[in-house]
Amino acid sequence: MSVTAAQGFTAAGIAAGIKENGNPDLALVVNEGPRLAAAGVFTSNRVKAAPVLWSEQVLRGGRVSAVVLNSGGANACTGPAGFQDTHATAEAVAGALGQSAGEVAVCSTGLIGVRLPMDKLLPGVAKAAAELSAHGGEKAAIAIKTTDTVHKTAVHEGEGWTVGGMAKGAGMLAPGLATMLVVLTTDADLDSAALDEALRAATRTTFDRADSDGCMSTNDTVLLLASGASGVTPAAESFTAAVEEVCADLARQLIRDAEGASKDIKIEVINAATEDDAVEVGRSIARNNLLKCAIHGEDPNWGRVLSAIGTTSAAFEPDRLNVAINGVWVCKSGSVGEDRELVDMRYREVHITADLAAGTETATIWTNDLTAEYVHENSAYSS
Amino acid sequence: MSVTAAQGFTAAGIAAGIKENGNPDLALVVNEGPRLAAAGVFTSNRVKAAPVLWSEQVLRGGRVSAVVLNSGGANACTGPAGFQDTHATAEAVAGALGQSAGEVAVCSTGLIGVRLPMDKLLPGVAKAAAELSAHGGEKAAIAIKTTDTVHKTAVHEGEGWTVGGMAKGAGMLAPGLATMLVVLTTDADLDSAALDEALRAATRTTFDRADSDGCMSTNDTVLLLASGASGVTPAAESFTAAVEEVCADLARQLIRDAEGASKDIKIEVINAATEDDAVEVGRSIARNNLLKCAIHGEDPNWGRVLSAIGTTSAAFEPDRLNVAINGVWVCKSGSVGEDRELVDMRYREVHITADLAAGTETATIWTNDLTAEYVHENSAYSS
């Protein structure tokens, strides 16, 4: 499954020794064609890792023959030398596969501000190239894990074509909790413009609306590669829907595996004047540490929701706001509503509905609670 | 000390029974004149508590004869009934003191979305009025505590005049961690316009730049009352400097007592193109949960600082950024700088310097680390 569910792709995942604990840390995904169309979206952080700067250039050409991904180091804030490391990695892949380095995308994830051990990474590229297989998707997905507790894959079967993918990290494209990397593949016969359109539509409502901890990564990358191997050209709507389904699935898996989280929180903003308003309000609620702590404590503290809404520039009147938590309208007309004791918060998934009473637009943002485990994991991360 | 350090003020702090644990929960500060000049700044949250809506109206007149403050309930998101409770509280104070309710400011702090127990609050007003004293400042400061572990007061002695004050909460004016309330008093002979100018200048660089957890309160209020009792009219610059000194002192006390914090983090942004850029970058760093966790773990994780800077719209080039942690330039030219092992993070205060290399402006933001204790305190708060 994973990136090799679609025809025309091979992949591998190996331990190159980048991670000191010997876990798998290098993945290779190769588009065997006949087509080499590709599209990508990248972090909007202005401090971009070397592989992001490189891959943005590669994607400008709309063709990707291979993607090499390493965990164990983000190669971010590593200066010109770090960029040379990325370039050398792409050259090594190109050399091993007999392709052009200008069509090799590179993704890295791990600690910021540390050079990659190229003496381990480059031999790893050769080793991964030797292990490429049409069944290698699962191993590739495993090799890109960092703090992930499980690897993440998803597949959609279309009529004669397939979209599959893998993801690592927990968070959002922009911002991102940890470094989020996603590679999607399809055997649909589509050009890079069609892929780009589908990918942007899909990420806008999925990865872009998963906000685990409000922190934007330097490395976030989502790539979509098409081999054309099925010979089928699906209709734009059904292809976009398929990509969106796979992205939504992977985004949910990222949230479910977010560092230290004990609750997955679905924030649905309804009756907004504009979709932008709905997204702004959803994000503001998703990033409120006090609310995230309250949800962790299974406390339906709707006052935190109103406080968060109040910091936005969205259209609303404070005395018309309504908030439901797990279906109970605990806040009505900006004031006390149904009995908060009615809210059942025992389950992992928590559903917050914020009714702005200002229009007809809606947006859904996913986030997590804030836990002592998150603090522990992130206070001990690089030491 | 506290609000009674300046001549012409009396205060009291009593237990009215609003808090179930019987701790002091009601404070009264009275301006005995001869002048009743006042200025105030309030939360910029659009969801404002009833006492904020009320006090904003009162302050428009530039005269405040008394301030009544309660802990044990924020009276926020309580609808028209909550506003009537605030009005009734002001009337009770006015009745007890023989003054006009339109000159009585009201402040509340505690849980959002809960009505105040007026059957306890109103008798408490009479009790507090009976205990008013020129030495009551300390008791008033104690009565406004919520999750504060210590009460906070500060005094500046001018030449023949005094500025004193008290504060509760831990966080910022806008945003605020918890409900932040501050009452400052002076016996300087100044009108409300002069007070307003000094107060805005002082809060802009003090309370507005303390960002404990990025959450903006519905109740934040800072009031400055002048009695004119000293008969001295200080020069504008020296008076503003005095108010700023008292505000800075109280703001530091708020940060030092922030919920669950183990580190006070001073973020100095230097060489910014504009002061706004410096503040935006400082706030972005201050609100980065991953960095706050890293500092908690005494990990000089400068990559988190760069990631946070990268999310702003400030003028900078990624490869010209420099970051020092406790004086060690761990990031130079956007890449690895001095050895991170040189950074000594054993002490409570941590100093981060972010050099944008884009101009000459500067700003300092204070924040705290993110700890398991913060999560614990805020996940158990209202349950």
From TrEMBL, chains A, B:
Active-site residues from the entry: 179 (nucleophile)
Subcellular location: Cytoplasm
SUBUNIT field: Heterotetramer of two alpha and two beta chains.
Similarity remark: Belongs to the ArgJ family.
Organism: Actinacidiphila glaucinigra
Keyword Membrane: no
Gene3D superfamilies recorded: ArgJ beta chain, C-terminal domain (3.10.20.340), L-amino peptidase D-ALA esterase/amidase (3.60.70.12)
Site (Cleavage): 178-179
Keywords assigned by UniProt, alphabetized: Acyltransferase, Amino-acid biosynthesis, Arginine biosynthesis, Autocatalytic cleavage, Cytoplasm, Multifunctional enzyme, Transferase
Gene Ontology BP term (one): L-arginine biosynthetic process
GO cellular component: cytoplasm
Amino-acid positions noted as binding substrate in the UniProt annotation, renumbered to this chain: 146, 168, 179, 259, 378, 383
Entry GO MF terms: L-glutamate N-acetyltransferase activity; L-glutamate N-acetyltransferase activity, acting on acetyl-L-ornithine as donor
Domain of life from the UniProt record: Bacteria
Stated name of the protein: Arginine biosynthesis bifunctional protein ArgJ
EC number in record: 2.3.1.35, 2.3.1.1
Pathway: Amino-acid biosynthesis; L-arginine biosynthesis; N(2)-acetyl-L-ornithine from L-glutamate: step 1/4; Amino-acid biosynthesis; L-arginine biosynthesis; L-ornithine and N-acetyl-L-glutamate from L-glutamate and N(2)-acetyl-L-ornithine (cyclic): step 1/1
Main location group: cytoplasm
Protein role: Catalyzes two activities which are involved in the cyclic version of arginine biosynthesis: the synthesis of N-acetylglutamate from glutamate and acetyl-CoA as the acetyl donor, and of ornithine by transacetylation between N(2)-acetylornithine and glutamate.
